[in-house]
Amino acid sequence: MPLPSSARALKKPRLDDEVRFLRSWIEKPLHMGAVMPSGKLLARTMAHYVDIDSDAPVVELGPGTGAITSALIERGVDQKRLVLVEYNPGFCALLRDRYPQAKVVQGDAYRLRDTLWNVLSAPASAVVSGLPLVTKPMLTRLRLIRDAFTALAPGAPFVQFTYAVVPPIPKSLPGVSTEASERIWMNLPPARVWVYRKD
């Protein structure tokens, strides 16, 4: 039985996003966090850790087509608070079209200090990352979280998901507390959200 036209219209953006992701992954597999956009449950779990009552910026690293961005907005984060750091120029154009009130920054999230040096007007209330951290050397991961903590307000979360069984950044960093969500089995592939806060 064919889908009604309204249901087809709702499925089309998701299918288009999956095609964009797959094409980008084929071109540069190590730059992509996933072959497909994050599932809704994973995106909602990440958004859950963001303070919706703050006026401070929320930085999203590697938003891609905006799956987590949409979850942040659905949770109640004002679009004007969003700073979306995306490397892929095609995704940047898509994000500017979909989220016209957000600030889209085309830049390298792994050089976060340089990318954000003149962008934030106040310390961020959260950094939410969809980057493929486990594909990077540990020193690159540690530099990223160090730079993220520099951009964050004291005690604000760095939120990262991973498909790996082990945490993407060690739990034993001095002066950093960590927590993890339950494994999200409904995501493909299953994922877990890790949250890091500087004490």
TrEMBL record:
InterPro entries noted in UniProt: KsgA/Erm, SAM-dependent_MTases_sf
Keyword Transit peptide found: no
Keyword Methyltransferase: yes
Pfam families given in the database record: RrnaAD
CDD domains assigned: AdoMet_MTases
Keywords for this protein: Methyltransferase, RNA-binding, S-adenosyl-L-methionine, Transferase
Gene Ontology MF terms: RNA binding; rRNA (adenine-N6,N6-)-dimethyltransferase activity
Domain of life the protein comes from: Bacteria
Protein name: Phosphatidylethanolamine/phosphatidyl-N-methylethanolamine N-methyltransferase
Organism ancestry: Bacteria, Pseudomonadati, Pseudomonadota, Alphaproteobacteria, Hyphomicrobiales
